[in-house]
């Protein structure tokens, strides 16, 4: 068991690193060190930060080894420097950053060989510390993919298109009133904010079986949705006015309709693809226009995990098996979301599609700890963000790896953000 776990951790570490290398080798040194948006770090910061976190947790803490580069800890501490300030720091250059992360990884494999994964150490039980670092690197790989999307210039990333629709999906699913188990005590790599498992009573509601598509969203735009304060919350309208929002980020108006720019390629907007790069306020306005609302986080998780016939919560909408390519659009296999109906094998028992993968889904909930929450392994992972000006997003995107995505996984961001791969679906009271 322990050796199987060791092998699967090694494979997860290698998959994350292969993605990091692909994203950072795709551009030249100038591109790596430049800031493509004040919202993002230079890619070379992400690269060395990934190595530094791995050194802190796995080499020094778990392995008890001497530091490799204690002198750079401060530079790569995300709490010490805002993203906009990172280009001005005396960062490792690309060659140094590559050499450093590779050196750390060598030591980590040595630590992994000797690690024991029993319950005597909470940090190592089930491989948790390694899982945390795998997820951390994968989260930065998604962030780096978002940086690529913001980068100007010729395309450097390629991937096959996502699968086509295999089934027509539209309408709503009815989720009966009742208690379900939210969160988890048993996912070995679940982060502190996903714990503990706890019962939540959810009144009956309807939820869209498909994500809101570009075609749906265009109907909102064409009916003057961006210019009608009736559909917007007060804060949302103020933001729409001050930021001049008139379409999702990366959309370009053209004589023949709307185009969008995706990883350096400009193509017509595809009507049956999920809309992406919208902020919470845009999602909220669309939902109001459609006579609906956004789901709460508990509603989303109940729709994604609750199996009414078995009377229990599953790990994923399709069951407890880890995601395979047929279930969901994850892992940067494709560079965009798949059309509605492309993943019937990933649907929930009540017929809700594409809850996992494709786009992160805005929920109406703020980010709070569950009842009984305990910070682990450090307060800065989640707790310091509780109660801030955030909305929870669920389900992962095409840019999210399988290791960093499950039915209980919680993401959070400011309601104005749209550089992330964010979309939504609607719900309504029964
Ligand atoms: Fe980080």
What does this structure look like?
Helix 1 (2-25) packs parallel to helix 5 and helix 3 runs antiparallel to helix 5. This protein is an alpha+beta fold and 430 residues long. The termini are far apart. The chain is globular. Helix content is 30%, strand content 12%. The site of fe (ii) ion has 5 residues, from helix 3 and helix 5. Fe (ii) ion (FE2) binds at residues 49, 53, 78, 136, 140.
Query: What spatial order of strands do you see in the largest sheet?
Result: 12-11-10-13
Largest sheet: 4 strands, mixed
- SSE order, one letter for each helix or strand: HHHHHEEEEHHEEEHHEEEEEEE
Gyration radius (Cα, Å) is: 21 Å
Contiguous helical run count: 9
The best one-word shape is: globular
The structural class is alpha+beta
Give the strand tally: 14
- Ligands: fe (ii) ion
> What is the residue-mean pLDDT, rounded to a whole number?
97
Low-confidence stretches: none
Helix content: 25-40%
Describe, in short, the structure shown.
The protein has helices at residues 2-25, 29-33, 43-62, 94-114, 128-150, 214-222, 234-243, 280-289, 297-305, and strands at 172-175, 178-182, 198-202, 205-208, 251-254, 257-262, 265-268, 306-307, 312-313, 360-362, 391-394, 410-413, 422-423, 427-429. By secondary structure, the chain is of the alpha+beta class.
